[in-house]
Amino acid sequence: MDHFSLKRSNAPDRGNSNLSSKVYVRSTKSGKVQKIVRELYLRQDIPCSSNLCRACLDIAPKDYTNKTASFVLSDTPAGSKNFPNGQYLVPDTNAFLTGMDLFEVETAFHDVIVLQTVLEEVKNRSLPLYHRLVALTKNEGKRFYVFFNEFRQETYISRGTGETINDRNDRAVRQAVQWYNTHIKEAIKARSKKQMRIPSVVMITDDRDNLRKAKAESIPAIKLSDFVSGLENADELLDMISAAQDQREVRSKQTEVFYPEHYSISKMMTGVKAGTMHQGIFNVSPYNYLEGSVHVPTFDKSLLVLGRENGNRAVSGDVVVVEVLPTDQWKAPSTKIIEEETLNKNDNAEIEDGETITSERERKALQEEVKRAHGQSSEGKPQPTARVVGIVKRNWRQYVGHIDQGSVRSTSKSSRQQQMVFLVPMDKRVPKIRIRTRQAGELLGQRVLATIDSWERNSRYPMGHFVRSLGELESKGAETEALLLEWDVQYKPFPKTVLDCLPAEGHDWKVPASTDDPGWKGRRDLRDLLVCSIDPPGCVDIDDALHARQLPNGNFEVGVHIADVSHFVKPNNAMDKEASQRGTTVYLVDKRIDMLPMLLGTDLCSLKPYVERYAFSVLWEVTPDADIVSAHFTKSVIRSREAFSYEQAQIRIDDDSHQDELTNGMRTLLMLSKKLKQKRYDAGALNLASPEVKVQTESETSDPVDVQTKKLLDTNSLVEEFMLLANISVAAKNYEAFPQTALLRRHAAPPKTNFEELSNQLKVKKGLELRSDSSKAVADSLDQCTDANEPFFNTLVRIMATRCMMSAEYFCAGTQAYPEFRHYGLASEIYTHFTSPIRRYADLEAHRQLAAAIDYEPLDASLQSKSKLEGVCKNINVRHRNAQMAGRASIEYYVGQALKGKDINEDGFVMKIFSNGFVVFVPRFGIESLIRLRDLAAPEPEAEFDAENYVLKIKGDVQRNIELFEKVTVRITDEVEESTGKRKVKLTLV
Amino acid sequence: MAPSQAAQVNLSPAELSFLRSSLSQTPPIRLDNTKGPRDFRSMVAEYDVLPSTNGSARIALDDGTEALVGVKAEVEKSLWRPNVEGRRALSIAAGDVDMTDDDKLESHDNKGKGQNSWIEISVEIPGYRDDDALPVFLASMLTESLLSSGELKDRLYINNRFHWKLGIDILLLSPPLSYPLALLSMTTHLALLTAHLPALKSEKDEDPLFDDDWDAAVPLYPKSDSSGGANVDKPPVIVLAMAVGPNIIFDPCKEELAVADAVLAIACAPSNASSTGPRIVSIRTIDPPSHLTPPAVPNAMNSATGGVAPASTAEALTQRELLSASGVWTPPRGGMKRDLIKRVSSMVVDKGGVAEEVIAALQAIEVG
C-alpha cells in the first residue's frame, strides 16, 4: 500500500525549503474567531542593500524600467568606540519603542537596518510609532533600510516547539544580524583582498536575555543606552530615551499605588455593549484641571469626572470608558477656578513616597464643591458624575511646556547629574509631566518639547521624556514654533517631491497666448471684463475678483472669479497630498504657513492685477432688486484691472469724481450686496461677533507696536455677500451633480440647552429675553439685546452667543439627510466653500467637483468615494479648527508683547463669574482675562457668591459687588504667567 | 435501526453458502485468510492534514476506502435559557452583566451546561445525496455516540453568553466498499483527539477574547486533567462486529457482511477511571445485507432436478425451515440473542479487549 500523504510538508528538510507557513488566530469585529494559515514563500533575491556588496546588486529584483532600487546603506558607515571599523545598526523592537526620538535625531543613528520582524512588532505595539518609523525609512539622509528577513530564506526561522513568540522574534533578529555579518564579510572579500575595514552589524537591544544569548553566539550586540553614551552630546540624547522603561525597574521598589487598575479591554467592551459603561473622549475644563467631562451618546449632558482619582490617569483627549457614579455623588459643574500650580506648588518631582493621590488641599477644594452642590438646588442641577475605568486609546502627543523651576534641585549648568523635574505644559488641561534629565540647568527658562511615555498606577504624575528645546522662553521663534506644535500645524518647508509638481516655467509661467493651446480648451475668454479684486491691505494670495455690468434688459451681470487652483494641483500627486494634509493656510500675526507652495499661492494662481490668469467664474444675471435670474459656471481667463484694499475701494466708491466703468461696476456691486444682505437677514441669518483685533507691527522687525480692533467697511460686506452667493450657488450645483459625494459645509442648529445659561443671565440681569427656537428668533432677539447707556453691550451679547453655537463643519453629502445640510448661521439650505482654493483644501475639492459637474473634466476617483471624502472632511475640520486656534494664540501672544511694560486703564465688561474670581473682557484689545479674588487683595478676601443673581459680593477691604455684564475699569499690566511661561496680560480692578 | 446497503454483493447462493460455512468453522477462516476474527484491516492514518481546520484526520484502509474529517469551531452566542440559568440569565437580560467574584466556585464548572445543538455532523459519501438514508443514519449514529457521554458538549461552553459551535465534516473519499461506519468513527476520533481551540483570554461573562497565538491553543481533549490526574476523557470510537454461527468477527469486509447472522455497532469511550476498561456509550444493531440475498433452491424443491416445487409460500417456508442445516444457502432471519450481545460487548469492553486496542492504536498515531 502506498504511503502518500495529503499534508503539505512544513518541515524545512523535506524538499520544499522555500515554502513555509504562518498560523495565527484572528478575531473579527463581528466576534468570529478564525484560524488563519498563511503560506510563506521564501526567496533569495532580497538584497542586503549595502553599497559594499556587489553580489546583491545582481540578484536584486528589477522594476519595469529594468532598474534596481538604489542601495541604502553607506559603504563607509560611521564607527564608534566599540566598533571602530564602522557599524550598521539593527535595533530590536524595544529599542524603537523606547528610543524613537533618538533615532529621529539628524546627527546620529545612520545606516540602520530595520528588520521586518521588528517593524511588524512595532506596528502591533504602537501605531503612531510605526508611522514615525516608516517616515524615517523614507528619509534619504538617514539611510534606514527595511530588510524583509522573514521572506529571505537564510534569515527565516520557524518557531520551535514551546518557544514563545517573543523568544522566536528575538532569535530571528539574532539570526538576521549573524547573516548580515557573514554576508558583509564575504562581500568585502569578494571586492578586494586588501580591504581590512569590515563594518560590524550590531544588534541594539535592552533585553538582558537577548544580550546574553547574542554573546554566547558571538553576535555583536550592545545596549541602547551604552551605545548612546559613546556618542557626542550624549547627555541630550540620553534624555530622549523613553522613561517607560526606567519606570519598570523602579516598580519593584515602589509598592504604594495611587490609582485603581484599568479594566481589561474585553471587560470594557462587554460593559459598553451592555450599556453599563460608556465610551467617550475625556476633556478637561480649562478653568478647573480637576474637572473633566466625557460626552457619551447615552446622555444629553456630558458626564463629569471629578478629581484625579476618578480621572484615573486619563489625559485630556484620550478615549476612555467611564462608569456612572451613584446619584448621591452627582454634582453641579464647578463655579470655582482651580489651577494646578496654586494647589500643588510645592510638589517634589523626585520624591514620591508619602504623597497621596489627592493632596490635602485638593481634597479640601473638592469637598467645598460637593457641599455647594448639595446646599442649593434650584440653579445648577446636579449633573451625573462618572469615573474612568479604562482607557481605550491614548491620544498623547508631544507637549510644549517649560521646566518648573521649583522642581529643579541643582541649577548648575555644569552638573551632569540626572534629576527628575516637572515639565509644566502650556496646555493647562494636561498634568505636569515628570522628566528625567541631565541638563536641567540648561533647560530652565526654555521652551521644551516633551512627550508622555507612561502613567503607572504608582505615579501621581505621568512620566515622559525630553524631545528637544525650542529656544528661550518668550523669544519670538520659540513661541511661534511652540504654538504651531501645540496646534499641530505642519510648518516644515515643502519637500522636494511637492516642489517637483510645480510648473517647470516657475514665475515665468503665462497664460498661453494662442487660444488653440490645450490650456484654453473649455475656457471662456473673459479678458475684456472689467474685473477687480478687493482684499485686506498687503494681501498677496488673491483668491477672488469681481465684476458687474448692466445688461441691455436692465438686469445686471455679476461675476465672481476664483483662482483656478485645480488647474495646477492635480488630484493625488504629492502636492495634492501635502495640501490635503495641511488642509488650510494658517495665518499668524507675523507669519503665514501656506497650504500650497509660494509660487502658486502668491503668483501663478493669485489673481494679480494687470496680468492674465486662469480663473473659475460664476456668472449670474441679477435683477436690480438682487433676485437671481440665472447662474452660470465656467472656467475662464481673466485680467484683473486693479487690486484694491477694502479702504481704497471704499474711498473710490465714495468719491463721486470717479465715474469710470470700473468704479461704477463696484457701486453696482455695493448696491446689490446691500440688498442681498438684507435678504439674508430677513431669512434669519445671524450677525454674530467675535472679538477681532489687529496687531500693528513695525515693518522690519515685526515687533508689535499697537493693537486695534478691526474696522468693518461696506466693502468688506460687499465681498462677503458675493462670496456667500457663489458658495451657495456652487453647493447647489455640486449637490445636484453628485448627491452622494458633494463636499458641503453645514452648521448645525445649537441644542436649546446651549442657550439656557445665557438666556437666564440676560433675564436675571437685564430683563431681556433671548429666544432660541430658530435662527431667525435668535437674530431678532439679539437685535433687541441693547442697553441704551452701553453701545458695546449688544456686541458683548453677540460674542457670548457665538460661544453657544456649534462649530460649522465640512461633510460629504451622502452622510447626512438633506434637512441636516442647513447652515444655521447663514440661514442657507445648502452651503460649501468655493471661493478660497489657495488657502483652503475644501475649496479645491469643490472646484474639482464643479469642473466635473459642468463636464469640463472627469471627476477623479478619490472624489467619488464617500469613505475617502469622509476622511478628507474629518482632517480638514480638525485642521481648520487648529488653524483658528493657532491664529488666536498668536494674536494673544502679540497683544501681550505689544502691552509689554505698559500700564493702562481701560474699560472692560464682566463676562463670567466664579465663586473665587471673574472674567473680564476688554473690547479695546479683544482680550479676556481672569481676575482672581486673591489678586484683589492679600490675604484673599472673603466673598459670597450668589449664583442665582450672578453677583459676587466681595467682603473685607475691597467691599465691592461684582455683577455679570457690569462695566468695570481695569488696570492692564503684563506679567509672565508662572504656570505656562507665557507673557500674559494681567488685569486688576481699579 | 440502520438501513441496509443499496449496493448488493454479487455472489451466487453457492458462494454465499461456502463463505458462511468457512466463517462459522472453529477457528473461522476469513476472506483474507491471514486475519483472525479480531483483526482489523490494516490502515494508514495521519492527522492535521487540513491546516486551516481546528483539527483534521485522514484514514485509508487497505481495501481502498478512505475518509477525511475536518473539525471547525466557531464562537456563537448562546440562547437565553431561563430554566437552566434562571437567576444569572435574568440579571443579564436586565442589562446587568454579572462580573462580581461571588460565582468563583462555579466558574470552572461547565458540567451540564453544554447543549446538543452545539455539535453538528455532516457526512458526505460519493454517489449519495445528503438526504439519502445512508449518510443521514451514519451522521446520526456518530452524533449519538459523541453526545452520549456529555463531556464534549460541556467542553464547548465558554461562558453564560457564548459557546463554541463544533462543525464536524466527514467525507468519504472512496465509494462505500464496506459498511463505512467504523472507518468514519475512527477518523472522527482522531480528528477530535488532535483538535485545538484558541486559548481564552477574557474572564467570566465578558465577550470572549482569544489569544492570537495558535501555539497557545488548548486541545479539545486535554492530555491530562488540570488536576494532573490521568482520568481524562477521550472521544468515543465505534467498532463493528458481526456474528456468524458461533463466531464473532470484527471489522467485517463487504463480502463477509453479506453472510452475517447479525451486525452490531458498539460505541465505546475510554473510562474515566483508569482501573476499569473502556465503557460502552451506545450500541446499535444493523440490519445485515445478508437478509436481502436471494435464497438458493434445494434439489428437493426444484422440479428440474426431480424435486417437487412447493404449492404455496407457506409450504415453501416450512420446507426451508427443515433444510436449514443442509448447507443450502438460506438468508438468515430473525434478530440477535441477548446472550450474543453480551458476548460481543464483553469482547469489546473487557480489559485488553478490542475497544482498548483500537483506542490505544489511534492514540499512538497522535503521540508517535
Q: How would you explain this protein's 3D organization?
A:
The complex is a heterodimer of chains A (990) and B (368). Chain A is α+β, with helices and mostly antiparallel strands and 990 residues long. Chain A folds into 5 domains: 165 residues, Rossmann fold, CATH 3.40.50; 110 residues, OB fold (Dihydrolipoamide Acetyltransferase, E2P) (Beta Barrel); 81 residues, OB fold (Dihydrolipoamide Acetyltransferase, E2P) (Beta Barrel); 305 residues, no CATH class; 91 residues, OB fold (Dihydrolipoamide Acetyltransferase, E2P) (Beta Barrel). Chain A is 31% helix and 23% strand. Chain A has 28 helices and 37 strands. In chain A, the strands form 11 sheets. In chain A, strands 18, 19, 20, 21, 24 and 25 form a 6-stranded mixed beta sheet that branches. In chain A, strands 10-9-8-11-12 form a 5-stranded antiparallel beta sheet. Chain A has a 5-stranded mixed β-barrel with strand order 13-14-15-17-16. Chain A is globular. The relative contact order of chain A is 0.06. Chain B is of the alpha+beta class. Chain B has one domain: 2-Layer Sandwich (Ribosomal Protein S5, domain 2), CATH 3.30.230.70. Helix content of chain B is 27%, strand content 20%. Chain B has 10 helices and 11 strands. A 5-stranded mixed beta sheet of chain B has the order 1-2-3-5-4. In chain B, strands 9-8-10-11 form a 4-stranded antiparallel beta sheet, sandwiched between helices. A two-stranded antiparallel ribbon of chain B has the order 6-7. The two termini of chain B are 38 Å apart. In chain B, 36% of the residues are buried. The chains are: A alpha+beta (990), B alpha+beta (368).
